[in-house]
Design a protein that fits this description.
Helices cover 27% and strands 36% of the residues. By secondary structure, the chain is α+β, with helices and mostly antiparallel strands. It starts with 6 loop residues before the first helix and ends with a helix.
């Protein structure tokens, strides 16, 4: 399975406002206003040696995670209940 194939499933999860999956090209879902922020988060992530990072932007959190050859960035309200299981959900979808 792949994150690109599961992007719609991830995008409709409760609390998720926007998603991007990078697998060669970038595939977006959700609120278009978040696309520049997601692009910046992916660009910052490439500068690290981490498997995942979290960025706080106002009242929202951006989670960026690499699974195999794909990288996903997700926007959700800070403190939302889905945050506890998001990393595992992404891992399973990959």
């Amino acid at each position: 399975m792949s994150l690109v194939a599961n992007i719609d499933h991830l995008a409709i999860a409760a609390g998720i406002e926007a998603v991007v999956v990078e697998s060669g090209s970038r595939v977006y879902r959700g609120d278009d206003g978040w696309h520049p922020v997601l692009d910046g988060a992916l660009d910052l992530f490439k500068r690290t040696d981490e498997k995942s990072i979290r960025l706080v932007v106002g009242n929202h959190t951006v989670v960026v995670q690499k699974e195999g050859e794909e990288t996903v960035a997700v926007v959700l309200p800070t403190g939302h209940a889905i945050a506890k299981s998001l990393r595992r959900m992404i891992r399973r979808m990959a």
